Amino acid sequence: MKASNAKRRYLTQRVAISVLAVSLALVVIPVIGIIIYMIANGYSSLSWEFLTASPSQAGKAGGILPAILGTVYLMLGTILFALPIGVMAGIYLSEYTRANWLTRLINMAIVNLAGVPSIVFGLFGLAVFVLGLNLGMSLLAASLTLAAQALAMTITTSREAIMAVPKEYREGSLAIGVSRWQTIRHVVLPQAAPGILTGAILAMSRAAGETAPIIVVGAAFLVGGLPGSPFDRFMALPYHLYTVSAHIPGMPSEIKWGVALVLIAMVLLFNILAGIVRIKTRKR
Amino acid sequence: MRKNYERALKALQDEVLVMASMVEKSIKRSIEALKNRDLELARQIIADDEAINNKRFDIEEQCVELIATQQPMAVDLRIIIAILNMLVDLERIGDHSEGIAKIAIMVGDEPPIKPLIDLPRMAEKSCQMLSEAMDAFINRDVVLAKKICDDDEEVDALYEQVFRELLIIMAENPKTIKRATRLIWVAHNLERSADRITNICERVVFIATGHMEDIGASKY
Amino acid sequence: MTIGNLVTLKTDPANTRAAEDGHCLRLQQVNLYYGDFHAVKDVSLDIGARSITAIIGPSGCGKSSMLRLFNRMNDLIPSARVEGLVEFDGVDIYQSGIDVVELRKRVGMVFQKPNPFPMSIYDNVAFGPRRHGIRNKRILDEIVEKSLIQAAIWDEVKDKLGQSGLSISGGQQQRLCIARVLAVEPEVILMDEPCSALDPIATLKIEDLMRILSTNYTIVIVTHNMQQAARVSDMTAFLMVGEDRAGMLVEYAHTNEIFTNPKNKKTEDYITGRFG
Fold first, then answer.
1. For a Cys staple, A128 with which of A52, A65, A132, A251, CB 3.0–4.6 Å?
2. How far apart are CA C216 and CA A183, in angstroms?
3. Under an 8 Å CB criterion, which residues of B touch C?
4. Selecting from 1.20.58.220, 3.100.10.20, 3.40.50.150, 3.40.50.620, what CATH number does the domain B3-209 have?
5. First and final CA of chain B: distance in angstroms?
6. HEC profile for chain B?
7. Do B69 and C255 touch (CB under 8 A)?
8. How far is C124 from chain A (nearest CA, A)?
């Protein structure tokens, strides 16, 4: 009787572990599959020219340098606006607000901001930045639009990172007559920096992949030359991918996959970077 | 480490030395008062015994405070417990010399029945034992402590000698009985003082070894 | 007495009363509330300058809360409310316009868990002085050395000032935190169970240090270890939770008195281990 009980317990455990392992495989295998499939199909299009030349024949020949640069500029522009505002808002929310209905409302608004469909941000950008501030369809307007979308992420991660700094450090500083702001500036922020940075990098990599909002505020399929100023229109990898995949008849498939591969590589690079930052700081 | 506590413990032992030297002085002076018929000195000794008693309460209080606040352990605990016992003995020795001083007053200027020789020797020996006992206490010297207990036999022998001598005097001349009896009391006081000193030595052994043992069983 | 709208804490002739009768900190019928919770009830006591005062009592009796009255650390808790008079050097430190930063500079605090900042030992000690505007490297060097010597840790760390403050042992970390407080030259050092995270040897080292510091500083220590209070303090305050769960002062007297002959039955029961 006892023996059979033990046996059953053992069996149950085996089944549970198996189910968990299969679930994990279901997640991992498609990701690896997609990457392998992309590499297999897009590898042949990768060349020095592909990465450093401008497109010709509606993208069927030449390279994608303007799109790569456009995406890099977009990421930088996004973070330029989203990070400082996010950090400052994060500081304010974690250090200076009290827990009351207003704070709860604001926190809820920030959480919901992350859930707003990206095309809505596109329309918002069109209305406010392109038309309202009269920035035109431009890199600047797109950066601001993506920054608005990234804010939810940078505010939340900043706030979390700041709140995760143990209160012992704050008290230690305040208790020797150091002011609130100096404490935040010299004790809290250095401690929270890695967390804030991780959030910022992830926000950037997400901005790199956005397609819908930038179509509305300034991305173009083909622009003559590289963007020279923030007020120029620009190319971007996701939009380029969308166009070459959906709108150009007779596009060689290895070019589509090549563009996808470059985009994925950039996003992946940033995610790995975020991971490294996190691991390094955990060691400290 | 615990410098404050170390200091307090050291101060406590110094206080015991001070009290012992007060007692020693009291023994010496009491026999002097008797020998020289110095009533003034005798009264002074009686008055000074008050100071010895106060010293004892002082030190006792310090012991209690140290135990209450510093949680002494091991040898430190034994030192304080030993001191508490030694205080009783020292105070008692003080009382014995006070007793001698009182006898000196009673004797007043009655003519001596015999020259005082053995009694001062007893007193001298007791004083020597006491000062050696304090050396043993400070140095945790078990060997010296045991030697002092052996010395007690000398005091006992002197006591016996004085006793017999005085008995003979009394038998020869009953008029001396009153005066001789007083001298026997003096001898008895000194003999008891020496016994008390052997008690102190037993405490020294306790501090050093942690064992309580009877090392100086007196005949009396 | 006021600079701008800040009340200065500098002792002026009007406040010499405190200096005259040797009192440095004073509570007069002080009540502390956290929201509806009455944490400290009607406490009055005077703390003498350059002495060690221990606050003992069972858990949750408001010891730490009471300690935090003296540097207004309770201000960090939004619902905290103080009634009554809390004086430092003869000045009511809860009157409006008090410069809390200045107050905390003069009334430093050491916490239960050693909390060196994740920076070098040197930077930890120099942190306060730097924030208070000292930039000169030579002066900072001097302050760091002096503070570490005062905190009896200089010999142990002088060859590794550049190492992280977190790399040293718990006892050393706590002494580093004390050095960090000393570096801003306070007059009072509040200690909130400074040894509860330390082993017995490290604890005795801190206690020794407190004795030495008490010749120049006023020290108030909260401890749940009454033997520690007995060993180290000059005065002891015994706090207890009343029936309404508010902490109140049961007895305040010389430490010797409290531990050999307490006047209050509750104090006696507590220190003899019969309750609490």
1. A132
2. 28
3. 1-5, 64-65, 68-71
4. 1.20.58.220
5. 47
6. CCHHHHHHHHHHHHHHHHHHHHHHHHHHHHHHHHHHCCHHHHHHHHHHHHHHHHHHHHHHHHHHHHHHHHCCCHHHHHHHHHHHHHHHHHHHHHHHHHHHHHHHHHHCCCCCCCCCCHHHHHHHHHHHHHHHHHHHHHHCCHHHHHHHHHHHHHHHHHHHHHHHHHHHHHHHCHHHHHHHHHHHHHHHHHHHHHHHHHHHHHHHHHHHHCCCCCCCCCCC
7. yes
8. 10
Tokens of A2: 């006892």
Q: Structural domain boundaries of chain C?
A: 2-114+188-271
List the single residue in C with minimal CA-CA distance to B69.
Answer: C230
Main-chain phi, psi angles of C55, to 5 degrees: -110, 115
Q: Which chain C residue's Cα is nearest to B6? A: C208
Give me the residue from C231, C255, C259 closest to B5, CB to CB: C231
- Sign of the C-alpha dihedral computed for residues B79, B81, B87 and B93 taken in this order: negative
Tell me what pLDDT residue C272 has: 86
* C-alpha span between C192 and C115 (Å, rounded): 12
pLDDT score of C103: 94
Structure tokens at A242: 């969308």
Complex ipTM: 0.87
Question: What is the least distance, in Å, from the CA of C275 to any CA of chain A?
Answer: 32
Q: Which residues contact B41 (CB under 8 A, 6 or more apart)?
A: B29, B32, B33, B101
Predicted confidence at residue C186, as pLDDT, reads 95
Assigned fold of C2-114+188-271: Rossmann fold (3.40.50)
Closest-approach residue (CA) in chain A for C70 = A175
Single-letter residue type at B122: M
pLDDT digits (tens, 9 = 90+) for C62-107: 999 999 999 999 988 888 999 999 999 999 999 988 999 999 999 9
Instruction: Pick the most confident of A98-102, A260-264, C216-220.
Output: C216-220
For C245, other C-beta atoms within 10 Å of its C-beta total: 13
Answer yes or no: do C231 and B69 touch at CB < 8 A: yes
Q: Quick one: pLDDT band at residue B219, thresholds 50, 70, 90?
A: low
Return the partners of chain B (3 or more C-beta pairs < 8 Å).
C
Domain chopping of chain B, boundaries = 3-209
* Predicted pLDDT at A282: 65
Q: Which is more confident, A138 or C177?
A: C177
